[in-house]
User: What shape does this take?
Amino acid sequence: MDVAAWLRGLGLERYETAFRDHEIDWVVLPQLTSADLKEIGVVAIGHRRMLLGAIAAIGATVTAACEAERRQLTVMFCDLVGSTQLAARLDPEDFREVITAYHRAVADVVGGFDGFVAKYMGDGVLAYFGYPRAHEDDAEHAVRAGLGAIEAVGCLDVKSVKLQARVGIATGLVVVGDLIGEGSAQEQSVVGETPNLAARLQALADPDAVVIAAATRRLVADLFEYRDLGTVDIKGLADSVPAWQVLRPSAVASRFEALRGSALTRVVGRDEEIDLLLRRWARAKRGEGQVVLVSGEPGFGKSRIAAALEERIQASRISASAFSARPIARTAPSTRSSTRSEGRPGSHLTIRPLPNWRSSRPCWPVAQLLTRT
Assistant: This one.
């Protein structure tokens, strides 16, 4: 909708110039405050009240009109072990403190991995990864959040009670976005098999364990170490389903190798880019240090190009240090390193992120090509 037309509909077209000069569009409009309106020249209190009321009405209309959507979602269900016994043993106020601390610990971890806490159900926490914001690695975020939640809950010291959690995670197609309930009980529902599967897997998990379904296991590949639980019977499902317990993050050299290393195909159509890198490598071997930045949209093949460079120079006597520049979450380390040596050390290839780099486009690690005597 045009903001100018909206103002004219309110009879406040006199402010069209002010809104245009301050670049207030339909995206910025819902964020305006009374102070903002006064700053751009809406001096009359009555006009400010009218505008704020109309902005609030827009928000209510958009929420009511929000349609449910079909999308892939990773659902994490976290449960506090032994909560019934704790409730029977502790004073209600003390038990409330325990539950509050547990909820806060899990929510902090989920938020750190850009997940969304959808609902607190007593001693259970339901979280979505992939809604409202979707990422290409939501399944990975969920598993890391599950491991982090178990660790965070285990470190809590509330009323001298030792707490443990268990987590179930499943990935699949759902319909999400329908508003159900009223008032403070209103929530955006998720319909599909995935939430039920996550809850059932959580119920099967041992204390301090994260159990994942097959679809999640396929997406996270070799990023973690697992214990195969075989097939398990799930209430409500006709057939048994495979399940795995996540033990810990794996020691695979890089995230790229963990996800795609065993399924790499021949590089096609990147001869010019790889030749450029090889020419820079030749300069580095002559003692001229080189830095190359490869940038592009997700799926462009940045990591694959760098892997192809390593493949081309494997015959050289080099030691290679590879760093993944892609952050896992806002609170997680942004780099992960490994070192491999091939033959006797000669030249040295380092692939690493550019320090303090800021870009509006996704960037693969800078390839810093150095020589070593």
